[in-house]
Amino acid sequence: MWRGCPKPIRDELLIENQFAKNAPRQTNVVELPKKQNNLFGHVGKLHKAHAFNSSLLDQDDFPVTVFTSQSALGNLLSFVKGKGMVFHVPFTSSINQNVAMAKLEESTVLISNSTDQFFANAHLSYLLSTKGNVIHYYYLTKEEKAINFRDFDLSIIAKYISSNDSTSPEDFAKKSGINSEKFVAIGPKDATTVIVGYGGAHLAAEESILKASSTLFVQIVQFNPFDAAQFIKLLPHSVKDMHLVEPTGLLYSEIVQSLHSEVALKNVVIEELDTKSRLYSHFQGVNTVEVLEKEQNLHSDILSSVFKDHLQVFNSKGSPEVAFGSLVSDLQKYETFVQSVTELSDSNLSAGFKSNLQSWLKSNGKSSDTLSKQLIEEASNLDQSEFVRHHQEYFKRKSRWIVDVETLLDLSNTTIHTILSSGENLNLLIIDQCSYDTDLPAPKNRRDAGLYALNYNIAYVAAICPLYSYTQAVQAVKEADAFNGPSVIILHAPKGNTGNKTKGSLQSIKLAKKAIDNGLITLYRWTPKTNDTEESLLVDSSKTKATLQKYLDKEANLSLLLEEAKISKDTGLESQIESKVQQKALDSYKKLFGGMNKKKLLILFGSDGGNAESLAKRIGMEAKEKGLFVKTLPMDAFVTEDLANEEHVLFVISTAGQGEFPGNARETWKFLSANDLDLSKVNFSVFALGDRQYWPRPEDSHYFAKAGKDLDIRLAKLNGKRLTPIGVGDDRDPDGYFTGFNQWVPEFWTALGVEAESLATQAAVPSDDAIKAASNYLRGTIAEGLLDTSTGALSEFDTKLTKFHGIYQQDDRDIRELRARKGLEKAFSFMIRVRVPGGIATPAQYIAMDDISDKWANGTIKLTTRQAFQFHGIVKSVLKRSMQDINKSLLDSIAACGDVNRNVMCNPDIENTEIHKIVFDFAKRFSEHLLPATAAYHEIWLDKKLVAGGEEEPLYGKTYLPRKFKTAIAVPPSNDVDVLAHDLGYIAIIEDGKFIGFNVTVGGGMGTTHGNKKTYPLLAQPLGFCTLEQAVAVGEKVMLVQRDYGDRTNRKHARLKYTIEDRGIEWFRNEVESRLGFKLEKSKPYKFTSNGDRYGWKKNSDGTWSYTLFIQNGRIKDTPDYKLKTGLREIAAVHQGVFALSPNQHLVISKIPENQKATISNLLAKYGIDNNGLSGLRLNSMACVALPTCGLAMAESERYLPSLVGKIENILEENGLREESITIRMTGCPNGCARPSIAEIAFVGKAPGMYNMYLGGGFAGERLNKLYKESVGEEDILSTLAPIIKDYSRLRRDGEHFGDFVIRQGIVSA
User: Fold this and answer.
1) Fewer Cβ in 10 A, N or C end of the chain?
2) What is the rounded distance in angstroms from the CA atom of residue 869 to the CA atom of residue 853?
3) Which of 966, 1235, 1246, 1263 is the catalytic position?
């Protein structure tokens, strides 16, 4: 591992041997020498001794233990990020720098103040290191350091590491008797004062003194992650004062921001660790303690803690120009020194000295302290260069800063221009102590200075606020120092009004938090593009993150920041720039300020399904073309209070549920409804989207576009001025919502005073076919998008292509609204659907899927309605590794989704093993035949060599199919695959126990759109009969006819069912036969009796056994009382046959040898996962995934159906029908993934908690059901079904199924 270790890190690796010399070897203790020179010489010996080496870092054994110093720790942390190491470090006053880095690296930080605590935290460290690095600080006396480390009980750690215990390390520690408390509290429960500290303060905290002074002392044992909730519980409600005893402000900012609102705090005092006299004076009865205004010295705290002896500050009160002159003079001397060293390195010197000089030159003056000291010692006796000898201090690494505290800079001042245009490698820190009270105008001056500096495109620029985030502040100053060029940092330290009598530190923290959360201050870090770095903007304050992340290109970033700052143009400074700054900076300056003079348009959208967002962005693009300055944001990502400052605002808003606002607009609507915001200066317009037929009952007509209409009325009541009457887009119009849009938009442009050109004449969003054609055979920019770490998403166009690779981009809709309110992007993740032709997998493949679900996904496996494995919750950073692990199992996801032939389904019931072998082999052969030929899948996910050219798709062509194409193979009498619900179906024809061929069916499909009568479900129609030898060719020609004649202009009308409906089955048959070159025979008779699964044990014709296991809605997971996932993995470990995925989302453990049947049976019983006690309704239930991951879901499905089934079961049991088999299915939207249209009872989601209810489907999947009631909730569902079920129990005929009964009784028509 040392080969990749930066030399400064190697140079500064130290170790305190107090404990290491006694430490047991099993803990992999690092005993590195204090002198760097011999470090590499020890590597081989250390390797043999099981010390610090790469094999240990990678092995799942005892954690590597490092006893080191505070100074070396910082470098080590960044080098061994996430390795799971334990660092024991003596506590010093420089703790904050490394704690800040530990927070960035997500390391755990523990602190010990006694021998007992040391041993407890040492044990806990090794347990916690299973999750990442642990830093264990100890503050011990010399006597306490005389610890016999060999008393350390390694058996506890070994037990946890080797057992794969699922409990957390903290819980395991408690069970093992290890103290894992995160805080230690000493003192009375009714204390009025709390003192909080982490190291050394316990020396003053004698309980008797604490009680007498009504003081509670809280020692922090675990600082990171800081458990605010547990800390708050320790605080008595009687507390009035809290004193934080610490080196600097990190603990200060962490605690105060999380304090409970019920705790009345007067002052927060920061004291140094060694000021114990102040603590004693407090205990002796002093009731008031001086409030230290630490924020005034925050700059020195941060700079000195980060750079220590390397810090060099050039300050001259009232004259930053003088400070700049001094710094430039120093830099000139340094350059002369570098030149002298360069010449000296070529002279006649000792080999060691020359090597050290060359190393120093390569480091660009940022060598290690060890090397610097060696060079200074050697240079003190140097005769060859008097200049080097007299200026040997330049060998030391320096961080040069100008700190402006007194001077109030603004854009008319030339100081920043002078500094930046010099291009020198220096750092400017500007302290902003302006008032940010929200009742005052937004401050400018120093805040604007940072934004102005961005315009140069040559400087590192950051805005920090240590009172809000000490960690971000430390990171920024380190990045500024590392940047090879000028840097400007604005340090915000907000202070209250001068008229405010409360001027303590707590108020400053509250002001900082309020200013940042309200968007008055934006924390950011900007790195311009150089030869060594790529241009990047990181925004560290959450309020504006969603806004700014959309503007990662420089012009948009700076335009947005400058617009928010409202900087005025300074012609005097412009003339200076024109003469002194390079042309690039001048052009950028003019372009930016030219944009400031444009008419501004703010576009806010509220969108759940994406239509309103897409339209808003298209309007924004056109507005930019018309010369407007545009911002386009979700409504909740904009600070609603700032709406009054906008001149022109357009709202584009869809309608959710029963007239509700979309999730990313609700908070804005709540605020506007509850507050009398003065919008008299705002010119607004609203364009509302809706579907007039979505709620078809006359009494529900007011739900149509209700959100937009309500918003329009409210904005007018708040004195806003309408630019236009409200525009309304209706999905039911001939051109959808564009019909109303194209009527409204010319008036909108005219009202803004720009050319009233319709959006319809602008370049349209590329069609799906255009995207496919331009994708280079499904490559697009997927590979590049995977490397983009600025977002968890892929581009919109690439997400259309990833479907062909079996991948859908999704987000967690449970937290979508919350993240929108916080200004965060959606919690994006990906679903992968693994193609399993015929549903047959090996136990080894199942175990691989189980591993992937735990390693990369959300810990569950979904068995789909199309016999595929499905994973959810895979984030982009591990998406490629997930795909590679799938490939290692000899499975793949290509063509599991997309406009191609998807996973071919086949009856998995192998009771007749010979016939099953025939149809299963055909399913695999046909699936392989229709796979896309492109090598994109293997290039992107498996790192195969790129195709040099000449690639083609012989079956699909560049645009593939108009829509998805689904194939299923049924073996009567079972119709478990719902063969008539598919585009292409094969029905095995068996005569006298022999397979003779297939009936072929075409044109089935379940998908519809609510309220759109042009969309509907259809059952497939018979096409004819073919032999096994003809079957592949017949299927291919069916698909090719659809390829050539399917509707490519309207994806809602693009399935094969509509092609056949439009042209007729006879035309379609003739077209297929003309391409085949032969006529199909007439279909042969067959009979289906059921479309469900046959549960439990069955003996197969070859003497083996099968067990069909009920998996509720296909979700394989463990719960506290139902260990399904664990049980199936244990079965897979011993099973010698196959795992067959059922089309009804269940699992068939098949081909079990007679001698293994008892073993499998015992395991099913052991985990309680057999089918005992399940009702007939539950065994025939099926649901799609829906919320929270499916972007199309309008209501719950998988998470709700089990509960609803339980309530319907009660009705069935009351009527003696618990064992009656009735098919019930639910989907969260009308796309039909769970094939609801052929269920006897079905529910299709329409809005949260609301479903359309269908009855009368065929028990064998041979008949569509009918809409019985619209928009019903649970109460209506149960009250509706109760009398029907009661009648069914009384009036049904022998053997009559529920679906047949409701038709015979006229409840629904046939």
Assistant:
1) C
2) 10
3) 966
- How far apart (Å, rounded) are the C-alpha atoms in residues 13 and 2? 12
- The 10 Å Cβ neighbour count of residue 3 is 5
Cα distance between residue 1233 and residue 508, in whole Å: 55
Active site residue 917: no
Find how far residue 418's CA is from the centre of its chain. Answer: 43
Strand order in the sheet with 1115-1116: 807-811, 828-834, 869-874, 861-863, 1115-1116
Of the pLDDT bands very low, low, confident and very high (cuts 50, 70, 90), residue 1277 is very high
For 844-871, give the secondary structure using H, E and C: HHHHHHHHHHHHCCCCCEEECCCCCEEE
Q: What are the tokens at 299?
A: 């700059």
CA distance 582 to 1034: 70
Q: CA–CA separation, 1276 vs 163, rounded Å?
A: 51
**Helix, strand, coil abundance in the chain, percent, nearest 5:** 40, 20, 40
Closest CA to 796 of 963, 618, 957, 932: 618
Catalytic residue from among 434, 906, 1026, 1190? 1190
pLDDT digits (tens, 9 = 90+) for 1153-1206: 999 999 999 999 999 999 888 999 999 999 999 988 898 898 999 999 999 999
Catalytic annotation present for 1026: no
CA distance 415 to 450: 13
Indicate the burial class of 587 (C-beta count within 10 angstroms; 0-12, 13-18, 19 or more). exposed
Query: Which of the following is catalytic: 434, 465, 897, 1184?
Result: 1184
Average pLDDT, the chain: 78
Contact call for residues 221 and 121 (beta carbons, < 8 A): yes
244/259 Cα distance (integer angstroms): 13
**Cβ-based neighbour number of residue 120 at 10 Å:** 20
Kindly report the pTM of this predicted structure.
0.56
Catalytic (active site) residue 175: no
Alpha carbon distance, N-terminus to C-terminus of the chain: 74
Structure tokens at 54: 């790469």
Q: Are strands 1181-1183 and 1224-1227 parallel, antiparallel or unpaired?
A: parallel
Any catalytic annotation for residue 434? no
394 burial (CB, 10 Å; 0-12 / 13-18 / 19+) is buried
Look at the block and give the residue holding tokens 């019930």.
1224
- Name the active-site residue from 550, 1229, 1235, 1246: 1229
Residue 833 is a catalytic residue = yes
How far are the Cα atoms of 465, 564, 633, 924 from residue 649, in angstroms, in the given order? 32, 15, 11, 57
Is position 1069 annotated as part of the catalytic site?
A: no
Show the tokens assigned to 1217.
Answer: 């029908």
Is 964 a catalytic site residue? yes
Among this protein's residues, is 902 annotated catalytic? yes
Question: Which candidate in 434, 465, 906, 1233 is catalytic?
Answer: 1233
Both tokens assigned to 1290: 């009384």
Q: Which residue has the tokens 């082999």?
A: 921
Give per-residue pLDDT as tens, 507-547: 666 677 777 766 677 888 888 876 655 667 777 765 543 33
Q: How far apart are CA 1017 and CA 981, in angstroms?
A: 8
Question: Is the CA virtual torsion 1113, 1115, 1120, 1121 positive or negative?
Answer: positive
797: amino acid identity, one letter: F
The phi and psi torsions of 219 (rounded to 5 degrees) equal: -100, 130
Nearest to 414 by CA among 340, 351, 321, 481: 321
Say how far apart CA 205 and CA 200 lie, in whole Å. 10
Distance CA 580, CA 423 (A): 11
- DSSP class of residue 656 equals B
